Amino acid sequence: MKAVILAAGEGLRCRPLTLTRSKVMLPVANKPIIEHVIDSLAKNGIKDLIIVVGYERERIMDYFEDGIDFGINITYVHQKAQLGTAHAIKQVAELMEEEDETFLVLNGDNVIETSTIKDLLENHKGNATILTARKEHTRGYGVIICDGKKVKKIIEKPTFEISHVVNTGIYMFDQEIFERIEQTPISQMGEYAITDTLQQMIDDGIQVEHVITDSLWRDAIFSWDILKDNSMVLDRYKEHEIKGTVEEGAIIRGNVSIGNNTIIRSGCYIVGPALIGDNCEIAPTVVILPSTTIGDNVTISSFTHIQNSIIMNNTRIGNHSNIANSVIGMNNFIGPYFITEDKENLKIEMEEEIQTADKLGTITGDDNIIGHRVLVKAGAMISSNCNIDSGKIISRNLPENSIVV
Ligand SMILES: CC(=O)N[C@H]1[C@@H](OP(=O)(O)O)O[C@H](CO)[C@@H](O)[C@@H]1O
After folding, report:
1. In the prediction, which pLDDT does 313 show?
2. Least confident piece of the model among 58-62, 118-122, 257-261, 291-295
3. Segment holding 33, helix H or strand E
């Protein structure tokens, strides 16, 4: 059986992190989100995968290549214009062979575990089955009204609460779906939505079923959501290994992974769950607290504290810095005494709506140069390619290529 991963969109609401990579390539537990999906497919015995790519597609294709290193054969299809989920699925029609009676469709930007798709694979019946999950807050999702296994209605992103059963965007379809997609009209949002296709099938009397999962399924809607994804994956992570060097006098507590060629200097205090990649240098007296992931080639200087954060590859952080509840992108050069302020239940304006982040410091994109003694106020985001002079306080979002003097 073939699987199809939809990975063409940018993930606008995850900017500034998605200015340089698509949402599916954002790292969670030191792996792109889409790699968690691919791992789950490979572990469930799926051998053939089609990835629908678009925005920043080279990054995806260069990383996974033909998929052999990831235990699966990958073919790529280019969706030239992002015209919705039904339009994305339609792109793979020509690659389906007669023996592919049914196929699995997944979003590339959702973190899942091996068991998430098991029940769907085992319980698919008829023309279409939707994998659903129960969620307390359903804002931003499609929700489902059902009668037992039978789906009665699928309502895309309702503005009021109707149901706590959400559409995960993971489906089993048979090939009839392609004809159904042809008959799907464009939505008011200007997209061909697979949820409209499914609703039309239901209206035409075709049985659409759902299977509910209790396993991990996390969709990062906003950039700060990857902090929670990261901490949930780290809590479940079982393959901890210390490959690098831990000097005498460094204290490591709980589940901590340390990559090849990484050196943890004497006097460091690291509490897991935490992941540290390859070729990192963690200077004496650095403190790393739970739910932190540090990428490859990262240098952290003395007396710096990091907690519940993601630090991506090739970043340097100066001494006496304090980073909490933050995401710091790739190739950043950050001077000493860099402080991120953080706040709980932070209100952030996005697309003219107020969103709430449970707890957030800063989100910083890639390729920034930040001087010493810079303070970033809670929720302020630094985009990419910015240059910030020493002693500055950043209290609002900085657009790309900003120079703060
Ligand atoms: C039109 C469509 O396919 N909508 C899906 C899809 O929404 P996106 O905004 O495209 O991510 O994925 C959601 C799950 O991530 C699901 O809840 C929703 O119903």
Report:
1. 97
2. 118-122
3. helix 33-43
Alpha carbon distance 291, 272 (integer Å) = 7
The angle formed by the CA atoms of residues 226, 103 and 54, to the nearest 5 degrees, is 50
Give me ligand 1 centre to Cα 265, in Å: 45
Rounded to the nearest whole angstrom, what is the distance from the C-alpha of residue 142 to the centroid of ligand 1? 6
Same domain, 132 and 256: no
Burial class (CB in 10 A: 0-12, 13-18, 19+), 28: buried
Instruction: Look up the ipTM and state it.
Output: 0.98
- What residue's CA is closest to ligand 1, atom 7? 141
- Residue 173 alpha carbon to ligand 1 centre in Å: 16
Helix 33-43 and helix 225-236: axis angle, to 10°? 40
CATH code of residue 347: 2.160.10.10
Establish whether residue 173 lines the binding site of ligand 1, counting it when its CB lies within 6 angstroms of any ligand atom.
no
Residue corresponding to tokens 């500055």:
392
Specify the pLDDT at position 201: 95
Summarised one tens digit per residue, pLDDT across range 291-310 is: 999 999 999 999 999 999 99
**Runs of H (alpha helix) within 65-193:** 85-90, 118-123, 176-182
Q: What is the pTM of this model?
A: 0.93
Alpha carbon distances (Å) from 204 to 90, 169, 178, 207, 324:
20, 21, 16, 9, 52
The whole domain housing 288 covers: 234-404
Kindly give the distance from the C-alpha atom of residue 200 to the centroid of ligand 1, in angstroms, as a whole number: 17
Does residue 219 have its Cβ closer than 6 Å to ligand 1?
Answer: yes
Q: How many residues are present in the chain?
A: 405
In this model, does residue 233 exceed pLDDT 90?
yes
Q: Is 142 in the pocket of ligand 1 (CB under 6 A)?
A: yes
Strand order in the sheet with 274-276: 256-258, 274-276, 292-294, 310-311, 327-328, 363-364, 381-382
Return the ligand 1 atom nearest residue 109 CA: 15
228 in a structural domain: no
Determine the Cα–Cα distance for residues 202 and 153; give it in Å rounded to an integer: 8
Query: Number of folded domains in the chain?
Result: 2
Q: Is any atom of ligand 1 closer than 6 Å to the C-beta of 193?
A: yes
Tokens 């992190």 sit at which residue? 17
